[in-house]
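Here is one chain, start to finish.
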Amino acid sequence: MSVKKTSWREECSELETLLKQERARVKYYQKIAKATGGKSLREIDKLSRILADSKDTERALRESEEKYRTVLEASPDSVVVYDTEGKVIYLNPAFTRVFGWTLEELSGKTIGNVPEENRPETRMMMDKVLAGESFSGIQSRRYTKGGSIVHVSISAAVYRDREGTPMGSVFNLRDITEQKKLEAQLQQAQKMEAVGTLAGGIAHDFNNLLMAIQGNVSLMLFNVNPSNPYYERLKSIEKQIERGAKLTSQLLGYARRGKYEVKPIDLNRLVEETADTFGRTKKEIIIRREPAQDLFAIEADEGQIEQILLNLYVNAADAMPGGGQLVLKTRNATHEEIKDKPYEVKPGNYVLLTVTDAGTGIDKETQKRIFEPFFTTKEMGRGTGLGLASVYGIVKGHGGYIEVNSRKGRGTTFSIYLPASEKRVSKPVKGGEQVIKGTETILLVDDEEAVLDLGAQMLEQLGYTVIEARGGAEAIEIYKTRRDSIDLVMLDMIMPEISGGEACVAIKEINPQVRVLLSSGYSIEGQACTILKRGCDGFIQKPFSVEKLSMSVGKILGEK
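Its structure:
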């Protein structure tokens, strides 16, 4: 083992260093001795260790303070630290970002940014803190420096020293403004859904009532000569029934139960045709069309889309009583353009229609309610409050989305997104109504006694033999025993116990080739639409006339 040799110069240098350290230690002890009144060296040494430990503790406290300051400053929530008198001693950057005030502006002050209506829960929070209690998740509102309102969820706790004495309080304010906005939108959507269900039920029952009236009038007209003095009165009643049916059609549209003849449609053509028709009745309105080239087709019920367009045109005209410009635009779009909604948007291509007027505009409070049924800002007698409600329901029923953008005095734009289709558009074919008679046997099924009786009379008037069934169970039993003599089954969709849809499935199991005509006070939607796709032969909506019934039945039987 080799030993390192050192020169006398190196040894002297080391001794000199040790001597300096020792002199420093002596001076240090002398200072301590002087400060402690000349205590023993052992006590002085003990005191020196305590002092050293206190310096380590101070360093640890400093490091801990830095750590928690870093956490507070990185927090996305606003944090305020108060002293025991409720004066601000700390604000984190998030507080300044959300509310606008800096620590320099509020240090040593109280924050008076509480709206009047939120002061009760604020007093309750302060009472809890003063009593030494913690709390979390209390929702309230606060003003920003600029005067706007922020919805917040507040949590707070008291902080204490080592002896447990309160030193102040820490408040955490989480900004939930967007959350509250989305909750409000979701509640509105749920309310609209519930009202839609109610509206659909009312429309269904009302259509059954209209069917009873329509059936009697139609039978009377079928046997009354136009020269009869009561003929015109009966025609007048029939017109009123048609008006009632249109009213329920709007209710069904709102309830998303108005789509019953779906096919590929060119929206540009519908916009052009409806705009021409509307323009002839409203000469003071200047209509500007901006149709997109190569516009995607949409799969929709043409009558329902026409109802959307005409309702929007009428609303635009009402907003411009002195005349003005109505701009109609179409273009292709994608789901990426429909953002920040409380519902999930189905991915894919869409056709966007915008209807813009230069009218009086709609204030924010009214915008929240414009799609509610029976809500109207028009004076008594000028509006039913069903126009925009039916627009909303039809758009939703077609899997689309609708938005409104308006400012008071600046006009209004309705934007409607409808799912695009890759199917080709066929040219529309229109034909007139005619009475088709027959001699076949029809099983008529309905749980409404009056409707069943009138339906049987209408079919018999057309030459058919009618077998009546007062519900789905009875219809199934009758068909089991008399299937060979029955040429067509006419089924009401909405019946207790066994619905028309269930009866149809059971009858199809007995004879897959059976011909079925569905009937309902609802328009074709949901279950009926599914049954039609499975091979059902047709649908007729109540109320219907003898002529319409004859065409529906005659078309199905004529395809045998």
